[in-house]
Protein backbone atom coordinates (compact mmCIF):
# COMPACT_ATOMS: atom_id res chain seq x y z
CA UNK A 1 0.00 0.00 0.00
CA UNK A 2 1.41 3.36 -0.99
CA UNK A 3 1.57 5.31 2.26
CA UNK A 4 1.30 8.54 0.28
CA UNK A 5 -1.96 7.44 -1.42
CA UNK A 6 -4.01 5.77 1.31
CA UNK A 7 -4.48 6.12 5.02
CA UNK A 8 -6.35 3.99 7.50
CA UNK A 9 -9.12 5.47 9.62
CA UNK A 10 -11.75 4.15 12.00
CA UNK A 11 -15.16 4.63 10.37
CA UNK A 12 -18.26 4.50 12.53
CA UNK A 13 -20.09 1.22 11.96
CA UNK A 14 -17.49 0.03 9.42
CA UNK A 15 -14.36 -0.50 11.51
CA UNK A 16 -10.99 0.08 9.90
CA UNK A 17 -11.31 1.71 6.49
CA UNK A 18 -8.94 2.89 3.77
CA UNK A 19 -9.45 6.43 2.50
CA UNK A 20 -7.68 8.54 -0.11
CA UNK A 21 -4.85 10.55 1.43
CA UNK A 22 -5.07 12.98 -1.50
CA UNK A 23 -7.09 13.35 -4.73
CA UNK A 24 -6.55 10.24 -6.85
CA UNK A 25 -7.08 9.58 -10.55
CA UNK A 26 -9.03 6.92 -12.44
CA UNK A 27 -6.87 3.89 -13.17
CA UNK A 28 -4.37 4.73 -10.46
CA UNK A 29 -2.89 1.70 -8.65
CA UNK A 30 -3.47 2.23 -4.94
CA UNK A 31 -2.29 -1.19 -3.74
CA UNK A 32 -0.18 -4.11 -4.87
CA UNK A 33 -0.30 -6.81 -2.23
CA UNK A 34 1.45 -10.17 -1.88
CA UNK A 35 -0.19 -13.11 -0.11
CA UNK A 36 1.07 -14.34 3.23
CA UNK A 37 -0.72 -17.65 2.66
CA UNK A 38 -1.99 -19.50 -0.43
CA UNK A 39 -3.82 -22.80 -0.62
CA UNK A 40 -5.66 -24.84 -3.22
CA UNK A 41 -9.43 -24.42 -3.55
CA UNK A 42 -9.85 -28.04 -4.60
CA UNK A 43 -11.01 -30.68 -2.11
CA UNK A 44 -8.34 -32.84 -0.48
CA UNK A 45 -9.87 -36.00 -1.94
CA UNK A 46 -10.66 -36.51 -5.61
CA UNK A 47 -14.41 -36.20 -6.38
CA UNK A 48 -16.31 -39.39 -5.62
CA UNK A 49 -18.57 -41.00 -8.25
CA UNK A 50 -21.69 -39.52 -6.66
CA UNK A 51 -20.24 -36.00 -6.59
CA UNK A 52 -20.34 -33.49 -9.44
CA UNK A 53 -17.09 -33.52 -11.39
CA UNK A 54 -14.90 -30.43 -11.17
CA UNK A 55 -14.69 -28.33 -14.33
CA UNK A 56 -10.93 -28.73 -14.19
CA UNK A 57 -8.54 -30.88 -12.23
CA UNK A 58 -6.24 -29.74 -9.46
CA UNK A 59 -3.36 -31.19 -11.49
CA UNK A 60 -3.95 -28.45 -14.09
CA UNK A 61 -2.48 -25.88 -11.70
CA UNK A 62 0.95 -25.46 -10.17
CA UNK A 63 0.74 -26.01 -6.41
CA UNK A 64 3.16 -23.14 -5.80
CA UNK A 65 2.41 -20.33 -8.29
CA UNK A 66 -1.07 -21.66 -9.26
CA UNK A 67 -0.52 -20.92 -12.93
CA UNK A 68 -2.58 -22.86 -15.44
CA UNK A 69 -0.04 -25.49 -16.52
CA UNK A 70 -1.73 -26.27 -19.84
CA UNK A 71 -1.37 -22.61 -20.84
CA UNK A 72 2.35 -22.86 -20.10
CA UNK A 73 2.55 -25.90 -22.40
CA UNK A 74 4.67 -27.70 -19.84
CA UNK A 75 4.29 -31.07 -18.18
CA UNK A 76 3.41 -31.04 -14.47
CA UNK A 77 6.07 -32.26 -12.06
CA UNK A 78 4.43 -34.25 -9.26
CA UNK A 79 5.74 -34.15 -5.74
CA UNK A 80 7.85 -37.34 -5.35
CA UNK A 81 6.48 -37.94 -1.84
CA UNK A 82 2.75 -37.40 -2.31
CA UNK A 83 0.17 -37.31 -5.05
CA UNK A 84 -1.45 -34.15 -3.72
CA UNK A 85 0.74 -31.53 -5.41
CA UNK A 86 2.19 -30.82 -8.85
CA UNK A 87 4.49 -28.06 -10.01
CA UNK A 88 4.96 -26.27 -13.31
CA UNK A 89 8.76 -26.16 -13.11
CA UNK A 90 11.74 -27.26 -11.06
CA UNK A 91 12.02 -23.65 -9.87
CA UNK A 92 8.49 -23.66 -8.37
CA UNK A 93 9.06 -27.13 -6.94
CA UNK A 94 12.26 -25.98 -5.22
CA UNK A 95 10.61 -22.84 -3.80
CA UNK A 96 7.64 -24.87 -2.55
CA UNK A 97 9.80 -27.44 -0.78
CA UNK A 98 11.47 -24.64 1.20
CA UNK A 99 8.22 -22.92 2.21
CA UNK A 100 4.62 -23.78 1.36
CA UNK A 101 5.10 -27.53 0.77
CA UNK A 102 7.13 -28.54 3.80
CA UNK A 103 7.74 -32.23 4.59
CA UNK A 104 5.08 -32.07 7.31
CA UNK A 105 2.48 -30.55 4.99
CA UNK A 106 3.37 -33.06 2.28
CA UNK A 107 2.89 -36.02 4.60
CA UNK A 108 -0.33 -34.55 6.01
CA UNK A 109 -1.88 -34.30 2.55
CA UNK A 110 -0.66 -37.78 1.70
CA UNK A 111 -2.37 -39.28 4.77
CA UNK A 112 -5.56 -37.31 4.16
CA UNK A 113 -5.70 -38.54 0.57
CA UNK A 114 -5.64 -42.19 1.61
CA UNK A 115 -9.18 -42.78 0.35
CA UNK A 116 -9.50 -46.12 2.03
CA UNK A 117 -9.10 -44.72 5.54
CA UNK A 118 -9.38 -40.94 5.23
CA UNK A 119 -11.66 -39.33 7.81
CA UNK A 120 -12.55 -36.81 5.10
CA UNK A 121 -14.16 -39.47 2.93
CA UNK A 122 -17.75 -38.44 2.09
CA UNK A 123 -17.27 -35.13 3.89
CA UNK A 124 -18.51 -31.93 2.15
CA UNK A 125 -16.10 -30.17 -0.21
CA UNK A 126 -16.24 -27.02 1.96
CA UNK A 127 -14.94 -28.98 4.94
CA UNK A 128 -12.11 -30.44 2.88
CA UNK A 129 -11.06 -26.99 1.65
CA UNK A 130 -11.17 -25.68 5.23
CA UNK A 131 -8.84 -28.52 6.15
CA UNK A 132 -6.46 -27.41 3.41
CA UNK A 133 -6.47 -23.92 4.90
CA UNK A 134 -5.74 -25.15 8.43
CA UNK A 135 -2.83 -27.29 7.23
CA UNK A 136 -1.46 -24.27 5.33
CA UNK A 137 -1.93 -22.08 8.42
CA UNK A 138 -0.08 -24.55 10.65
CA UNK A 139 2.71 -24.69 8.08
CA UNK A 140 2.83 -20.88 8.05
CA UNK A 141 3.27 -20.87 11.82
CA UNK A 142 6.33 -23.06 11.31
CA UNK A 143 8.00 -21.37 8.33
CA UNK A 144 7.02 -17.74 9.06
CA UNK A 145 5.84 -17.02 12.62
CA UNK A 146 5.62 -13.28 11.88
CA UNK A 147 3.20 -13.84 8.99
CA UNK A 148 1.20 -16.22 11.17
CA UNK A 149 0.81 -13.45 13.75
CA UNK A 150 -0.19 -11.12 10.93
CA UNK A 151 -2.89 -13.61 9.98
CA UNK A 152 -4.16 -13.69 13.56
CA UNK A 153 -4.38 -9.88 13.61
CA UNK A 154 -6.98 -9.79 10.83
CA UNK A 155 -10.71 -9.44 11.38
CA UNK A 156 -12.63 -12.56 12.43
CA UNK A 157 -13.82 -13.89 15.78
CA UNK A 158 -14.16 -17.53 16.91
CA UNK A 159 -17.86 -16.99 17.63
CA UNK A 160 -18.54 -17.14 13.89
CA UNK A 161 -17.82 -20.87 14.00
CA UNK A 162 -18.80 -22.00 17.48
CA UNK A 163 -22.13 -20.24 18.07
CA UNK A 164 -24.20 -22.84 16.19
CA UNK A 165 -24.21 -26.60 16.92
CA UNK A 166 -23.48 -27.56 13.29
CA UNK A 167 -20.51 -25.25 12.83
CA UNK A 168 -19.15 -26.15 16.27
CA UNK A 169 -19.33 -29.84 15.34
CA UNK A 170 -17.30 -29.12 12.20
CA UNK A 171 -14.73 -27.16 14.21
CA UNK A 172 -14.36 -30.07 16.65
CA UNK A 173 -13.96 -32.49 13.74
CA UNK A 174 -11.30 -30.32 12.07
CA UNK A 175 -9.54 -29.83 15.40
CA UNK A 176 -9.30 -33.58 15.87
CA UNK A 177 -7.78 -33.95 12.39
CA UNK A 178 -5.24 -31.17 12.89
CA UNK A 179 -4.26 -32.58 16.30
CA UNK A 180 -3.78 -36.05 14.80
CA UNK A 181 -1.62 -34.67 11.99
CA UNK A 182 0.64 -32.52 14.15
CA UNK A 183 4.12 -34.07 14.46
CA UNK A 184 5.51 -34.54 17.93
CA UNK A 185 8.54 -32.32 17.26
CA UNK A 186 7.92 -29.28 15.10
CA UNK A 187 9.77 -26.47 16.82
CA UNK A 188 6.53 -24.48 16.72
CA UNK A 189 5.45 -23.10 20.06
CA UNK A 190 1.75 -23.05 19.35
CA UNK A 191 -1.17 -25.20 20.35
CA UNK A 192 -4.05 -25.45 17.92
CA UNK A 193 -6.90 -25.30 20.42
CA UNK A 194 -10.55 -25.47 19.43
CA UNK A 195 -10.79 -21.71 19.93
CA UNK A 196 -7.76 -21.06 17.72
CA UNK A 197 -9.11 -23.34 15.00
CA UNK A 198 -12.39 -21.39 15.09
CA UNK A 199 -10.54 -18.06 15.02
CA UNK A 200 -8.41 -19.12 12.05
CA UNK A 201 -11.47 -20.27 10.10
CA UNK A 202 -13.05 -16.88 10.78
CA UNK A 203 -9.93 -15.06 9.53
CA UNK A 204 -10.07 -17.14 6.37
CA UNK A 205 -13.80 -16.61 5.81
CA UNK A 206 -13.64 -12.83 6.15
CA UNK A 207 -10.31 -12.14 4.47
CA UNK A 208 -9.53 -14.71 1.77
CA UNK A 209 -9.49 -13.65 -1.88
CA UNK A 210 -10.19 -16.19 -4.58
CA UNK A 211 -7.77 -16.63 -7.48
CA UNK A 212 -10.02 -17.66 -10.32
CA UNK A 213 -9.79 -20.13 -13.17
CA UNK A 214 -9.33 -18.66 -16.67
CA UNK A 215 -12.54 -17.07 -17.96
CA UNK A 216 -14.56 -19.08 -20.48
CA UNK A 217 -18.04 -17.77 -21.40
CA UNK A 218 -19.54 -21.24 -21.60
CA UNK A 219 -18.27 -22.49 -18.21
CA UNK A 220 -18.94 -21.52 -14.63
CA UNK A 221 -15.82 -19.78 -13.37
CA UNK A 222 -14.49 -21.58 -10.31
CA UNK A 223 -11.79 -20.69 -7.79
CA UNK A 224 -8.39 -22.33 -8.26
CA UNK A 225 -6.83 -21.08 -5.02
CA UNK A 226 -7.42 -18.82 -2.05
CA UNK A 227 -5.00 -16.25 -0.71
CA UNK A 228 -4.78 -14.13 2.42
CA UNK A 229 -3.63 -10.62 1.51
CA UNK A 230 -3.02 -8.66 4.72
CA UNK A 231 -3.31 -5.10 3.40
CA UNK A 232 -6.09 -5.73 0.86
CA UNK A 233 -8.19 -7.12 3.71
CA UNK A 234 -8.82 -3.58 4.94
CA UNK A 235 -10.93 -2.57 1.93
CA UNK A 236 -14.61 -2.43 2.84
CA UNK A 237 -17.50 -3.38 0.58
CA UNK A 238 -19.81 -1.17 -1.46
CA UNK A 239 -22.38 -2.33 -4.01
CA UNK A 240 -21.19 0.51 -6.27
CA UNK A 241 -17.42 0.28 -5.71
CA UNK A 242 -14.95 2.97 -6.70
CA UNK A 243 -12.08 0.50 -7.07
CA UNK A 244 -11.64 -3.08 -8.20
CA UNK A 245 -8.94 -5.67 -7.86
CA UNK A 246 -7.05 -7.43 -10.62
CA UNK A 247 -4.97 -10.58 -10.55
CA UNK A 248 -2.72 -11.81 -13.32
CA UNK A 249 -1.94 -15.31 -12.11
CA UNK A 250 -1.25 -16.76 -15.57
CA UNK A 251 0.79 -13.79 -16.78
CA UNK A 252 4.56 -13.87 -17.10
CA UNK A 253 5.97 -11.56 -14.43
CA UNK A 254 9.53 -10.30 -14.20
CA UNK A 255 9.59 -10.49 -10.39
CA UNK A 256 7.79 -13.85 -10.20
CA UNK A 257 5.05 -12.39 -8.01
CA UNK A 258 2.22 -13.58 -10.24
CA UNK A 259 -0.09 -14.20 -7.25
CA UNK A 260 -0.02 -10.54 -6.19
CA UNK A 261 -3.29 -8.68 -6.48
CA UNK A 262 -3.56 -5.10 -7.72
CA UNK A 263 -6.26 -2.62 -6.74
CA UNK A 264 -7.01 0.16 -9.26
CA UNK A 265 -9.44 3.03 -9.10
CA UNK A 266 -12.51 2.93 -11.33
CA UNK A 267 -12.91 6.72 -11.45
CA UNK A 268 -11.43 9.83 -9.84
CA UNK A 269 -11.54 9.92 -6.03
CA UNK A 270 -11.36 13.07 -3.86
CA UNK A 271 -9.27 13.32 -0.72
CA UNK A 272 -10.70 11.57 2.38
CA UNK A 273 -13.16 9.48 0.32
CA UNK A 274 -13.28 5.84 1.42
CA UNK A 275 -12.06 3.40 -1.23
CA UNK A 276 -14.25 0.31 -1.51
CA UNK A 277 -14.37 -2.92 -3.46
CA UNK A 278 -17.39 -5.05 -4.26
CA UNK A 279 -17.08 -8.49 -2.69
CA UNK A 280 -19.01 -10.07 -5.59
CA UNK A 281 -20.26 -9.19 -9.12
CA UNK A 282 -22.20 -5.92 -9.15
CA UNK A 283 -25.08 -7.32 -11.25
CA UNK A 284 -26.60 -9.25 -8.32
CA UNK A 285 -30.02 -8.07 -7.18
CA UNK A 286 -30.60 -6.57 -3.74
CA UNK A 287 -31.90 -9.70 -1.99
CA UNK A 288 -29.02 -11.85 -3.25
CA UNK A 289 -26.41 -9.26 -2.26
CA UNK A 290 -27.80 -8.94 1.24
CA UNK A 291 -28.02 -12.71 1.68
CA UNK A 292 -24.42 -13.26 0.61
CA UNK A 293 -23.08 -10.42 2.74
CA UNK A 294 -24.86 -11.72 5.82
CA UNK A 295 -23.89 -15.37 5.30
CA UNK A 296 -20.30 -14.76 4.24
CA UNK A 297 -19.33 -11.60 6.12
CA UNK A 298 -21.89 -11.15 8.88
CA UNK A 299 -23.37 -7.76 7.95
CA UNK A 300 -26.10 -6.12 5.87
CA UNK A 301 -25.24 -3.37 3.40
CA UNK A 302 -26.76 0.11 3.70
CA UNK A 303 -25.01 1.81 0.78
CA UNK A 304 -26.77 4.36 -1.48
CA UNK A 305 -27.70 1.68 -3.99
CA UNK A 306 -29.13 -0.66 -1.35
CA UNK A 307 -31.23 2.09 0.21
CA UNK A 308 -32.89 2.63 -3.18
CA UNK A 309 -33.30 -1.03 -4.10
CA UNK A 310 -34.56 -2.09 -0.66
CA UNK A 311 -38.05 -1.00 -1.75
CA UNK A 312 -38.00 -2.96 -5.00
CA UNK A 313 -39.47 -6.41 -5.44
CA UNK A 314 -37.50 -9.00 -7.40
CA UNK A 315 -40.16 -8.80 -10.09
CA UNK A 316 -39.74 -5.03 -10.37
CA UNK A 317 -36.00 -5.57 -10.58
CA UNK A 318 -36.35 -8.08 -13.41
CA UNK A 319 -39.09 -6.38 -15.44
CA UNK A 320 -37.83 -4.83 -18.64
CA UNK A 321 -34.13 -5.29 -18.01
CA UNK A 322 -32.02 -5.19 -21.15
CA UNK A 323 -28.64 -6.80 -21.75
CA UNK A 324 -26.92 -4.08 -19.70
CA UNK A 325 -29.08 -4.90 -16.68
CA UNK A 326 -31.12 -1.69 -17.05
CA UNK A 327 -34.67 -0.91 -18.05
CA UNK A 328 -35.48 2.03 -20.32
CA UNK A 329 -36.06 4.48 -17.48
CA UNK A 330 -32.78 3.58 -15.84
CA UNK A 331 -30.89 3.78 -19.13
CA UNK A 332 -32.28 7.26 -19.75
CA UNK A 333 -31.17 8.27 -16.26
CA UNK A 334 -27.72 6.87 -16.96
CA UNK A 335 -27.50 8.78 -20.24
CA UNK A 336 -28.36 11.97 -18.38
CA UNK A 337 -25.60 11.22 -15.88
CA UNK A 338 -23.20 10.50 -18.70
CA UNK A 339 -23.75 13.98 -20.11
CA UNK A 340 -22.78 15.45 -16.74
CA UNK A 341 -19.73 13.26 -16.14
CA UNK A 342 -17.28 16.16 -15.98
CA UNK A 343 -19.34 17.91 -13.33
CA UNK A 344 -19.59 14.72 -11.31
CA UNK A 345 -15.84 14.18 -11.50
CA UNK A 346 -15.20 17.74 -10.32
CA UNK A 347 -17.38 17.01 -7.31
CA UNK A 348 -15.24 14.09 -6.34
CA UNK A 349 -16.16 11.24 -8.64
CA UNK A 350 -19.65 10.62 -7.29
CA UNK A 351 -21.52 9.80 -10.45
CA UNK A 352 -24.73 8.98 -8.58
CA UNK A 353 -26.37 12.21 -7.44
CA UNK A 354 -28.72 12.30 -4.46
CA UNK A 355 -31.75 12.95 -6.66
CA UNK A 356 -31.03 10.01 -8.97
CA UNK A 357 -33.43 7.13 -8.34
CA UNK A 358 -31.08 4.69 -10.03
CA UNK A 359 -27.59 5.14 -8.54
CA UNK A 360 -26.37 2.02 -10.33
CA UNK A 361 -27.52 3.04 -13.83
CA UNK A 362 -24.44 5.11 -14.70
CA UNK A 363 -22.18 2.45 -13.19
CA UNK A 364 -23.75 -0.38 -15.21
CA UNK A 365 -23.38 1.45 -18.52
CA UNK A 366 -19.84 2.69 -17.97
CA UNK A 367 -18.09 0.29 -15.62
CA UNK A 368 -19.66 -3.15 -16.03
CA UNK A 369 -18.42 -5.53 -18.72
CA UNK A 370 -21.17 -6.60 -21.12
CA UNK A 371 -19.37 -9.68 -22.38
CA UNK A 372 -21.58 -12.77 -22.16
CA UNK A 373 -21.62 -14.36 -18.67
CA UNK A 374 -18.79 -12.10 -17.47
CA UNK A 375 -20.28 -9.41 -15.19
CA UNK A 376 -16.83 -8.09 -14.42
CA UNK A 377 -15.95 -4.51 -13.52
CA UNK A 378 -14.10 -2.16 -15.86
CA UNK A 379 -11.34 0.15 -14.68
CA UNK A 380 -9.04 2.34 -16.79
CA UNK A 381 -5.49 1.21 -17.37
CA UNK A 382 -3.01 3.15 -15.20
CA UNK A 383 -2.54 6.74 -16.39
CA UNK A 384 0.65 7.68 -18.21
CA UNK A 385 2.02 10.56 -16.17
CA UNK A 386 -0.79 13.11 -15.97
CA UNK A 387 -2.60 11.69 -19.01
CA UNK A 388 -5.56 9.43 -18.15
CA UNK A 389 -5.95 6.22 -20.12
CA UNK A 390 -8.94 5.89 -22.43
CA UNK A 391 -8.72 2.09 -22.35
CA UNK A 392 -10.81 0.16 -19.83
CA UNK A 393 -9.85 -3.33 -18.64
CA UNK A 394 -12.27 -5.95 -17.28
CA UNK A 395 -11.11 -7.53 -14.03
CA UNK A 396 -12.82 -10.85 -14.88
CA UNK A 397 -12.37 -11.66 -18.57
CA UNK A 398 -9.46 -9.26 -19.18
CA UNK A 399 -10.90 -7.76 -22.34
CA UNK A 400 -10.00 -4.16 -23.21
CA UNK A 401 -12.41 -1.56 -24.51
CA UNK A 402 -12.18 2.11 -25.37
CA UNK A 403 -14.06 4.32 -22.90
CA UNK A 404 -15.41 6.41 -25.78
CA UNK A 405 -17.06 3.33 -27.24
CA UNK A 406 -18.70 1.95 -24.11
CA UNK A 407 -22.21 2.72 -25.21
CA UNK A 408 -21.99 0.68 -28.43
CA UNK A 409 -19.90 -2.11 -26.90
CA UNK A 410 -16.95 -1.97 -29.31
CA UNK A 411 -13.93 -3.83 -28.00
CA UNK A 412 -10.22 -3.12 -28.24
CA UNK A 413 -8.11 -6.04 -29.36
CA UNK A 414 -5.84 -7.36 -26.63
Task: Characterize the structure shown.
The protein has 414 residues and is of the alpha+beta class. Helices cover 32% and strands 14% of the residues. The protein is built from 14 helices and 15 strands. It has helices at 69-72, 90-97, 103-112, 125-143, 145-152, 159-162, 165-181, 194-207, 286-297, 304-309, 314-318, 328-339, 341-346, 361-367, and strands spanning 6-11, 15-20, 29-33, 37-40, 77-78, 86-87, 208-212, 223-228, 236-237, 243-247, 261-265, 276-277, 378-380, 391-394, 400-402. The strands form six sheets. The chain has a three-stranded antiparallel sheet, with no helix packed on it. A three-stranded antiparallel sheet has the order 4-8-7. The chain is globular and about 60 Å long.
Q: Structural class of the helix and strand makeup?
A: alpha+beta
Largest sheet: 3 strands, antiparallel
- The shape, in one word, is globular
Rounded to an integer in angstroms, the radius of gyration calculated over CA atoms is 22 Å
Give short descriptive properties of this protein.
three-stranded antiparallel beta sheet; 14 helices; 414 residues; alpha+beta; 15 strands
Short recap of the structure:
The protein is an alpha+beta fold and 414 residues long.
Topology:
Blueprint: E1 6-11, E2 15-20, E3 29-33, E4 37-40, H1 69-72, E5 77-78, E6 86-87, H2 90-97, H3 103-112, H4 125-143, H5 145-152, H6 159-162, H7 165-181, H8 194-207, E7 208-212, E8 223-228, E9 236-237, E10 243-247, E11 261-265, E12 276-277, H9 286-297, H10 304-309, H11 314-318, H12 328-339, H13 341-346, H14 361-367, E13 378-380, E14 391-394, E15 400-402
Parallel strand pairs: 9-12
Antiparallel strand pairs: 1-2, 3-11, 4-8, 5-6, 7-8, 10-11, 13-14, 14-15
Amino acid sequence: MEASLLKMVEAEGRGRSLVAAKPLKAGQVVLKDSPILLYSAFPVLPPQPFQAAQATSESNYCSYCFKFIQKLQSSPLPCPSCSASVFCSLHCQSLAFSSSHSPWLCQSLKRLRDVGSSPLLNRPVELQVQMRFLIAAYNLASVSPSNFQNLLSLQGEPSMFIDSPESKYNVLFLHSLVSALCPTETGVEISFSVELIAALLAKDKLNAFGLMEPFLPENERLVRAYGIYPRASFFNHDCLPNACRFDYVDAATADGNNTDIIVRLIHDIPERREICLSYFPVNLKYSERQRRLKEDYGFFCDCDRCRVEANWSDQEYDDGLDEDGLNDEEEEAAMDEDENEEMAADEGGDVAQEDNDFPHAYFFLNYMCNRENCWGTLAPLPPSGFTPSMVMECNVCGILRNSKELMDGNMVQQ
